[in-house]
Amino acid sequence: MPDPTHFSVLQRISTLTRWILGFSFIIAVSVPYVLVVLLMLPWRGLRIRSGNIYGKLVGPALTRVTGTRARIGNRERLNDQKPAIYVTNHTSELDPFIAMWLCPMGGCAVAKKEIARVPFFGWAYKLSGHLLIDRSNREKAISSMKEIAALVRRFDLSIWIWPEGTRSRDGRLQPLKKGFVHLAIATGLPIVPIVMHDAHKRWPRRSLRMYPGQLNIDVLPAVETTNWSAQTMDEHLAEIHGIF
């Protein structure tokens, strides 16, 4: 982890500059996007895919603004098994921008409902039709997973999800929640694990400080789920945890 007690004046100026540039870019892209997507409100499938285009602009731009140089191993695997359920570890404030960048067209993210409150970025996310989940309420979370499975079938979508639920404090993998296993059983989609190495060292959880440097990302081989069942759910959960 970066040492929070050592953050020089130059680092503070650099981070402030990055914040200003990043937020200005989000406003510049989000305002026209929101106006356009309002015209698409009756067509959720179209809004989801327009959100992918928005993500291809915002994701890589914001990643670079933070000073992060992403090295993506086996990126072609993201499209090899499309549609799919993309699962990745969750350690950094960078995570949503990386997801927006890498998620293939026709992919739909699953994020916590609080993201909708973020000015401009959150508004664009909610209007795009991508999915929000209430982690504080188990019944609502289960209902959300059923909605996701229905949307996957209806619009032939991929899903991008962080199965740990919350960001890790120290970069270590936390226990995985079962939601993505339920989705795999309901849809039969393969699971593509994506490992972010030391992302918490670039932009730590709940921190305003950014630490420029390289971020290594590995896209692992897909895991077939057509034979998965509710009776063996714990085994599948352990399998994916072991792969990570």
**Termini separation:** 20 Å
Which of globular, elongated, flat, extended, rod-shaped describes the shape?
globular
| Assembly form of the protein | single chain
Can you tell me the residue ranges where pLDDT is under 50 for at least 5 consecutive residues?
Answer: none
Radius of gyration: 18 Å
Q: Kindly report the average pLDDT value.
A: 91
Structural class: alpha/beta
* N-to-C series of helices and strands: HHEHEHEHEHEHEEH
- Tally of DSSP β-strands: 7
The helix content, as a percent range, equals: 40-55%
- Strand percent estimate: 15-25%
| Biggest sheet features | 7 strands, mixed
Describe the structure.
By secondary structure, the chain is of the alpha/beta class. It has eight helices and seven strands. It has helices at about 10-40, 45-65, 75-80, 95-100, 120-125, 140-155, 180-185, 235-244, and strands spanning about 70-75, 85-90, 105-110, 130-135, 160, 190-195, 215-220. It starts with 8 loop residues before the first helix and ends with a helix. About 35% of the residues are buried.
Describe this structure in a few short sentences.
By secondary structure, the protein is an alpha/beta fold.
Descriptive terms for the model:
7 strands, alpha/beta, 244 residues
Please outline the helices and strands.
Blueprint: H1 9-38, H2 44-65, E1 68-73, H3 77-80, E2 85-88, H4 95-102, E3 107-112, H5 121-127, E4 131-133, H6 138-155, E5 158-161, H7 179-187, E6 191-197, E7 213-219, H8 233-243
Parallel strand pairs: 1-7, 2-5, 2-6, 3-4, 3-5
Antiparallel strand pairs: 6-7
Helix pairs in contact: 1-2, 1-5, 2-4, 6-7
